Give the backbone structure.
Amino acid sequence: MRAEPDASPPSTIGPVEASITRYTDTESRIHAFARFDAEQALLLDAALAVTGASGPLARAPIAVKDIFDTAGVPTERGSDLYAGRVPDRDADVVRNLRAAGAVIVGKTVTAELAMLHPGPTRNPWDLSRTSGGSSMGSAAAVAAGVVPLAIGSQTNGSVIRPAAYCGVVGFKPTFGRLPRDGMLVTSPTLDQVGGFARSVRDVAVLTAAMAGEASERWWSGDTTAPKLAALRTGDWEHADDAARQRFQADVDLLAAAGGPIEWPAPPLALEQAPQLLRTIMLFEQSRALAGEMRGREDLISEVTRRNLAEGAAIPDDVYRRALDERRRLVEIFAAWAARYDAILTPAATGEAPTPETTGDPRFATRWSLVGAPAITVPSGLGPHRLPLGLQLVGAPGDDRRLLAAAAWCEARIPPIGVPLL
């Protein structure tokens, strides 16, 4: 399935109607949504039109990952454990989006409990491939043009990786910048809210709205060439040849465009990150879900049961030491990264794999552990004509600076087109 530029004529229907039409045309193939309520979306859109909604997302159709509560609408978290669960209030980020004028059109598929076991979603670029996990439905819905914006979440690589696989922009802000009330949180130290869009500017506007803040808090529009660092971490050998070549080509392109790029050695302590993240994540997830699972283990997939059993076997003192080491790494990384506007790394090991897996998150792991802001920008197609992505990472707290750097890079990387569906 090859991508071509979108040459369709401009639409005369509203964005919500266009979203419904696109959903009807694509959903039977990509399975991005756990539920989609066209009738309710049209009613909300009509009400906003009557009141003259003028918020930053006025009448914009938005999809919400099905781990975020939506009042009166099932939020089943990709698991039979929560079948039929209907919350009575919105998650904070959903409430903030509604206040910004957005129309929530549906809930997107998540991997089971936002972990590893894949949902049914397929990659719009190639239906034989995964769209990544765990925010698989949100990334696919944006890539397929069903919605311009979608909410996701990340514990390890669940925004960065699906964005890369689907050829869209995915942004995970600094840990704690976005509220998690009303979101399924199974790893309090790592779970973060994120979002998907077709451009850096749009994801900045989405993020500001999720935070309940003015866009200017996140978006500067600065066109100054950023100071960039290019990194080959200890996971470089796990990237395939196409991903390595694409990364080097991106760095060369940005350097030629005037972006001063260094190749510094990253802090050696960061090489501990994968094991530390796994220890913290599995320990916290196993305890967060123990009560829900007790006596109902048959409702959970085998892969999830294995991971939770591994987490349950981690001693308390090992977990506490991992938390202490994480705090040390946050300080080390923050001091080291502050000298750069953004750090460049691959976003994934290569193109999207086949759908029995959600893909390898390793190129996001370090930055998730230290709570750093990270964003994926589409940066070309691989040998199977599937998207590849460039990841930019900032120092914790430097979200606005990172978004400006990402926008500068985005403007200099040729667009990849859209999937044919």
In short: The first helix runs from residue 15 to 30. The chain has one domain: 15-260+336-410. The domain at 15-260+336-410 is CATH 3.90.1300.10 (Amidase signature (AS) enzymes). Confidence is low (pLDDT under 50) at residues 1-9.
